[in-house]
Amino acid sequence: MEATMKPSHIGRKISRIRELRGIKQEALAFELGVSQQSVSRMEQSENVEEETLQKVAKILGVSTEAIKNYNDEAVLNIISNTFNNHDNSATLQGHIIHYSPSFNPIDKLMEVIEENKKLYERLLESERAQNELLKKMIKD
């Protein structure tokens, strides 16, 4: 029995990589200088012109070979082998990166709110001073 090779669906691979990178069709379309519908059609196509593929690869931050050889199963294996819920580390090109935020986002938000309050108070004081100056000018 002869095994037949299933043709590589480049458009579907572009779509999967785009989704994994968190890029919307509209953003990819904008970078390519085409409409969102054109990107949708490209992602439904089995084949993509080499020149277009190179542009897409550059925008997605991968090589054309990465798109051509993309495999969902391989990606899932990489994720399952490098991710666990017990630490905040990830691997990037063989290097372990530990992600532990050193700040509380709520504290940062409160700092911004306080800064906005101070700016508002300064603006309000400036407006009061201008009003007083105008009142003085009107009386004179």
From TrEMBL:
Residues 14-67 form the HTH cro/C1-type domain. Pfam families: HTH_3. Keywords: Coiled coil, DNA-binding. GO terms for molecular function: DNA binding. The keyword Coiled coil applies. Residues 106-137 form a coiled coil. It comes from the Bacteria. Gene3D superfamilies: lambda repressor-like DNA-binding domains. PANTHER family: DNA-BIDING PHAGE PROTEIN, TRACRIPTIONAL REGULATORY PROTEIN-RELATED-RELATED. This is Transcriptional regulator.
